[in-house]
Amino acid sequence: MKIFLLQLLFLTTVLCSCTKKETFVISFASCNNQNIPNKLWSPILSHDPDLFIWGGDIIYSDTENMALMRENYKRMKDDLAYLNFRKKIPVIGTWDDHDYGLNDGGANYLKKDSSQQLFLDFFDVEPDHPRRNQKGIYELYTYVKGGASVNIIVLDTRYFRSDLTKDPTGEKRYIPTHNQDATMLGAPQWKWLEDILTTSDAQFNIIVSSIQFLSHEHGFESWGNMPGEVEKMKKLIVKSKARGIIFLSGDRHIAEISKIDIQGLDYPLVDFTSSGMTHSYDTFSGEPNTYRIGDVVAEKNFGLLTIDVKENTVKMEIRGEDNFLFKELLQKY
């Protein structure tokens, strides 16, 4: 048996078999339209990952009609290729705007509590699990491999998020807000995250954010629309002394790797974006990103992380249809 799963309140601990090797392999991706065939499940399976993480937009269901959203989730869940995939690979994840129910939606979405229950239904979360009663779908998973632990910290960037500021010039969709009270995660989730990072003894702490954390100059959704929240996160990361923090993000229908050095942090902070699975930004012609490493991948793609707990390294790969390797980066921690 590949894994043993133990759920306890907000903590899920998975003990992984170490017979294969002292690596923990994570695959992740986002932006999956349930009405379009997904050709990436087979290439992902070929890597025999220990885990697959949905980065959001599992389905496209911008609606307040919960019966329609339920049907869209069912269509995805019953898809034969995905059904075969999740029989072999454990699956976790977060939501983004289109499976949340409102394009670019935040705290103002009226059906967010009902939508949350349908999201949890999709992942077969037990009726009495604490996530059924908490506000927002954030969760912590801890995996143990090769004598080391890896935290997967799944954020909710929708439920509590304040309104964004539209660009009055129309040049971009959004501009950074000057509202000092604007929040990305909300007070309860910020407190939860602080508790996790400041007490973490994990060798790696993978933070799953549906939207990009580092790239922000494009003017679409990103943490950069709330500069105060970006600084708050950076300060928390440094203060916590948590090891091996890596952001995984989606949303943009492109893939790229961004990296920044932060004063007080003894390793570079990486934001690895993978998106989309069934449709991508194939007309992409370029956009600024001060922190980008290499080129943008505009073809359909998935992300792969191979964490070597012995060597304390992470190999990050962007792959596409037929398992084509677009890009890779080896990062030492």
Automatic annotation (TrEMBL):
<dbReference type="GO" id="GO:0004035">
    <property type="term" value="F:alkaline phosphatase activity"/>
</dbReference>
<dbReference type="InterPro" id="IPR029052">
    <property type="entry name" value="Metallo-depent_PP-like"/>
</dbReference>
<protein>
    <submittedName>
        <fullName>Alkaline phosphatase D family protein</fullName>
        <ecNumber>3.1.3.1</ecNumber>
    </submittedName>
</protein>
<dbReference type="Pfam" id="PF09423">
    <property type="entry name" value="PhoD"/>
</dbReference>
<dbReference type="InterPro" id="IPR018946">
    <property type="entry name" value="PhoD-like_MPP"/>
</dbReference>
<keyword id="KW-0378">Hydrolase</keyword>
<feature type="domain" description="PhoD-like phosphatase metallophosphatase">
    <location>
        <begin position="28"/>
        <end position="276"/>
    </location>
</feature>
<dbReference type="InterPro" id="IPR038607">
    <property type="entry name" value="PhoD-like_sf"/>
</dbReference>
